[in-house]
């Protein structure tokens, strides 16, 4: 049984390892091209590429899967099945039609909810308490194919995107191992998705990271959790970006007045008025510096009560 595995980030690595550990023949791995990372722009291979090379699996990295040459290269591998997990590109019909058993995808949500590229982050940002994994046959639409199996995974109150990625990546690998035998022997029962229940989780933008202080403290807390550890939520202070990496809704309703107004600042952290309740900022990152406890940052800045965060300059 010849399998081509497609994946890019760490989310996909456990699925690849499970396939190999179980003795499946992975003839090649397809991953996104290496990207420049960090301030020094160091060209860095994706985690799936590193995992594949460590196991002696050849790796392909086409810039555009829709390029006919890329599709022909996949077809030349003569796969029986293509398995994808967070690959990052939409597969054209030529690739979908290449394997005789089709293409399946390990998707990080309970479809048809949260179709798209950021299902894990947006589930947390939306305050969901349960998410999961869906394995589905791939179609030409965005995560629209028939579902083969699903597994629920609870979202803990203190989960971030980072911790939930880890939980779902392991759950995805486990569900893949449970599901593959039925796909290979032709007994898999695929169920169409209910289009009326479909929701979308598009890739995050800079605007998704900006804190809107008119929203509730709990909503902003979920936003911050959903952006950790990748991008981080941000506001403005003194005309510069101030990132927020950890926060919690304050137990009391101290403060009041304009959203974004500093209600208190001291050893316990920074308390900011929101549209509903007060948010306690625990870890922040001022422009040009490393992340630090808010109490440490406050030792070196003047932030009197009444200061308003959120404008492009202090007080706006």
TrEMBL record:
<dbReference type="GO" id="GO:0005829">
    <property type="term" value="C:cytosol"/>
</dbReference>
<dbReference type="Pfam" id="PF02911">
    <property type="entry name" value="Formyl_trans_C"/>
</dbReference>
<dbReference type="InterPro" id="IPR001555">
    <property type="entry name" value="GART_AS"/>
</dbReference>
<feature type="binding site">
    <location>
        <begin position="109"/>
        <end position="112"/>
    </location>
    <ligand>
        <name>(6S)-5,6,7,8-tetrahydrofolate</name>
    </ligand>
</feature>
<comment type="similarity">
    <text>Belongs to the Fmt family.</text>
</comment>
<dbReference type="InterPro" id="IPR041711">
    <property type="entry name" value="Met-tRNA-FMT_N"/>
</dbReference>
<feature type="domain" description="Formyl transferase C-terminal">
    <location>
        <begin position="204"/>
        <end position="301"/>
    </location>
</feature>
<comment type="function">
    <text>Attaches a formyl group to the free amino group of methionyl-tRNA(fMet). The formyl group appears to play a dual role in the initiator identity of N-formylmethionyl-tRNA by promoting its recognition by IF2 and preventing the misappropriation of this tRNA by the elongation apparatus.</text>
</comment>
<dbReference type="InterPro" id="IPR044135">
    <property type="entry name" value="Met-tRNA-FMT_C"/>
</dbReference>
<keyword id="KW-0808">Transferase</keyword>
<dbReference type="InterPro" id="IPR005793">
    <property type="entry name" value="Formyl_trans_C"/>
</dbReference>
<dbReference type="InterPro" id="IPR036477">
    <property type="entry name" value="Formyl_transf_N_sf"/>
</dbReference>
<dbReference type="Pfam" id="PF00551">
    <property type="entry name" value="Formyl_trans_N"/>
</dbReference>
<protein>
    <recommendedName>
        <fullName>Methionyl-tRNA formyltransferase</fullName>
        <ecNumber>2.1.2.9</ecNumber>
    </recommendedName>
</protein>
<dbReference type="InterPro" id="IPR002376">
    <property type="entry name" value="Formyl_transf_N"/>
</dbReference>
<keyword id="KW-0648">Protein biosynthesis</keyword>
<dbReference type="InterPro" id="IPR005794">
    <property type="entry name" value="Fmt"/>
</dbReference>
<dbReference type="GO" id="GO:0004479">
    <property type="term" value="F:methionyl-tRNA formyltransferase activity"/>
</dbReference>
<feature type="domain" description="Formyl transferase N-terminal">
    <location>
        <begin position="1"/>
        <end position="180"/>
    </location>
</feature>
<dbReference type="InterPro" id="IPR011034">
    <property type="entry name" value="Formyl_transferase-like_C_sf"/>
</dbReference>
């Amino acid at each position: 049984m010849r399998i081509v595995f497609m994946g890019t980030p760490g989310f996909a690595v456990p699925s690849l390892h499970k396939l190999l550990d179980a003795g499946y023949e992975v003839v090649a791995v397809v991953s996104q091209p290496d990207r420049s990372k960090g301030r020094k722009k160091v060209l860095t291979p994706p985690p799936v590429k590193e995992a594949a090379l460590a196991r002696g699996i050849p790796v392909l990295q086409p810039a555009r899967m829709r390029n006919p040459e890329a599709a022909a290269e996949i077809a030349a591998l003569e796969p029986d099945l293509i398995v994808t997990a967070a690959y990052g590109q939409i597969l054209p019909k030529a690739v979908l039609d290449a394997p005789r058993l089709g293409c399946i995808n390990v998707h990080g949500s309970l479809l048809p909810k949260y179709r798209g590229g950021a299902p894990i982050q947006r589930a947390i940002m939306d305050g969901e308490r349960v998410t999961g994994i869906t394995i589905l046959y791939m179609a030409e639409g965005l995560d629209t194919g028939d579902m083969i199996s699903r597994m629920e995974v609870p979202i803990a109150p203190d989960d971030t995107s980072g911790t939930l990625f880890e939980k779902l990546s392991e759950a995805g690998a486990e569900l893949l191992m449970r599901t593959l035998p039925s796909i290979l022997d032709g007994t898999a029962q695929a169920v169409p998705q209910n289009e009326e229940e479909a929701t979308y989780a598009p890739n995050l933008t800079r605007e998704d990271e900006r804190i809107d202080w008119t929203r509730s403290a709990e909503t902003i807390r979920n936003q911050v959790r959903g952006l950790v550890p990748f991008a981080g939520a941000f506001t403005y202070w003194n005309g510069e970006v101030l990132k927020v990496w950890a926060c919690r809704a304050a137990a009391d309703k101290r403060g009041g007045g304009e959203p974004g107004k500093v209600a208190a600042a001291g050893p316990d952290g920074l308390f900011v008025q929101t549209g509903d309740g007060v948010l306690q900022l625990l870890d922040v990152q001022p422009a040009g510096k490393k992340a630090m406890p808010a109490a440490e940052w406050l030792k070196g800045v003047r932030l009197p009560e009444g200061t308003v965060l959120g404008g492009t300059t202090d007080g706006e």
